[in-house]
Design brief:
About 35% of the residues lie in helices and about 20% in strands. With about 280 residues, the protein is α/β, with parallel strands linked by helices. The protein has a single domain, classed as Rossmann fold (3-Layer(aba) Sandwich). Strands 1-2-4-3-5-6-9-10 form an eight-stranded mixed β-sheet, sandwiched between helices. A two-stranded antiparallel ribbon has the order 7-8. Strand 5, helix 3 and strand 6 form a beta-alpha-beta unit. It is globular, with a radius of gyration of 17 Å.
Length: about 280
């Protein structure tokens, strides 16, 4: 039986973060989930229930500027503070289960954060990490003048927001999921110039610093993703075949865990985790 509870944590700079924990008796592993841009923890209910069936406890927060957490929508003062949020979630999960194997799981922007975390922070607490359609590179890369303009604006007005360009039809092939996203009051379509500049830069940085990786990764992508590039994910994996398993899913867009083949996707994740646990 999976027991769902709300919780809140305070990040290093004092920002309050809201989240949910899905607890099972004597879990064989913990999963800490980091969501993508403009969404929130509530969109991972079915993912949490899936892991619960495999006796895995699931923890997910709303990143700052998202969901029920504090902060201007779509903004973070730096990429580092988001990495701090990831760390605080892990510390919270670890405080409840001291020796249980733990995995970090990130989707889209959250996948980029997890990739960076695994290269920049202490990963001794982790048994592995999963990247879902990670923001490493974009399908439609903005022209250099737009990127440079965003960086300049970020220096004197970092919280200035603009459209993130996401459309519900880019997410999945399931009209029910897309419609629910479009009607979800906690979903928004903005990103600040500071957050965009840093997420874009750190995605490229991750692709050129794979030598820093010290733990196994599963990286997966929908072949028809129109947002984050499968080519970026493949490039990451090809640089570290000793640590990274890369899978793609046909007829699948940006959110494989929500698309019509979601059972196939989640089973792929579980198979990889089970191998790590054994």
């Amino acid at each position: 039986m999976v027991e769902k509870e709300e919780f809140s944590i305070i990040s290093k700079d004092g920002t309050q973060l809201a989240g949910y924990e899905y607890i099972v008796d004597e879990p064989q592993a913990l999963v800490c989930m980091i969501h993508g841009l403009g969404e929130h923890s509530g969109r991972y209910e079915h993912v949490a229930q899936f892991f619960g069936q495999h006796q895995i406890a699931f923890y997910v927060i709303d990143l700052r500027g998202h969901g029920a957490s504090e902060g201007k929508r779509g903004h973070a003062s730096s990429y580092d503070v988001l990495l701090d949020d990831v760390e605080e979630l892990m510390m919270y999960a670890r405080s409840e289960f001291n020796e249980t194997p733990m995995f970090l799981y990130g989707h889209s922007m959250g996948g980029g954060l997890v990739a960076n975390y695994c290269m920049l922070r202490n990963t001794n607490e982790l048994s592995g990490a999963i990247l879902s359609s990670p923001w490493l590179s974009l399908v439609d890369t903005p022209p250099s003048w737009k990127i440079n303009l965003a960086k300049r604006i970020a220096k004197f007005w970092p919280s200035f927001t603009q459209s993130n360009g996401l459309d519900q039809h880019m997410l999945t092939n399931d009209p029910v999921v897309n419609g629910a996203y479009n009607q979800d009051p906690k979903v928004f379509g903005k990103i600040s110039v500071k957050l965009f500049s840093e997420a874009y830069t750190q995605g490229i940085w991750a692709l050129t610093n794979t030598a820093r990786l010290k733990l196994p990764l599963l990286v997966y992508h929908g072949e028809d993703d129109p947002i984050t590039s499968p080519i970026g994910s493949k490039s990451l994996a090809e640089q570290r075949p000793d640590l990274i398993v890369y899978t793609t899913h046909s007829e699948t867009k940006h959110e494989p865990h929500n698309d019509l083949k979601k059972e196939e996707v989640l089973n792929t994740v579980w198979d990889w985790m089970e191998n790590r646990l054994n």
